[in-house]
Every structure is written in C-alpha cells, then in structure tokens.
Amino acid sequence: MEIIYTLHAKDRMKKRKITKDEVIYIIKNPDKILKIKGKYYARKNIGRATIEIVYEKDKYIKVITLYYI
User: Fold this and answer.
1) Please, which residues have CB within 8 angstroms of residue 18's CB and are 6 or more apart in sequence?
2) Contact between residue 13 and residue 3 where contact means Cβ atoms under 8 Å apart
3) Number of Cβ within a 10 Å radius of residue 17
4) For 28, which DSSP code?
C-alpha cells in the first residue's frame, strides 16, 4: 500500500531524525495500535525511543504526524 506524508509529518521526521523506513516498520509492526475517529495511532519501541505515528488509511496510508512518547 502506498504511503504519503503531510508536510507536517515530513517536518517532524526531519526534526526528530525518524526515517521513512522506521515509519513503515512501525506501521507494519506496531506494539500497540488504536483507532480513534477514523485515525490510527501506531506505537512502537524501536530501541532508542518509543514513537507514535498518527495516520489515516483508505486507498493509501496518509501519515499525519509522529512523535516520541
């Protein structure tokens, strides 16, 4: 499935030094996932930090934002 990133998400990835490969890994292999009002919250501990990614899923995955927990 195609993944697109909002400008906000791209900015957060750059500031937090989170790669696209890490985003894909977290979405595909979350430790915990919630769905609230049509948005998915995927959380994963990747060793150096626990990251949560907020995205929408329809014909493609749209990453809205991401942050350290």
Assistant:
1) 12, 51, 66
2) no
3) 9
4) H
CA distance 45 to 60: 24
Supply the mean pLDDT for the chain. Answer: 97
DSSP secondary structure string for all residues of 36-57: ETTEEEEEEE-SS-EEEEEEEE
Tokens of 65: 């934002």
Instruction: Kindly report the pTM of this predicted structure.
Output: 0.94
Q: Which residues of 28-61 are buried (b: 16+ CB within 10 A; e: fewer)?
A: eebeeeeeeeeebebebeeeeeebbbbbeeeeeb
Distance CA 32, CA 16 (A): 21
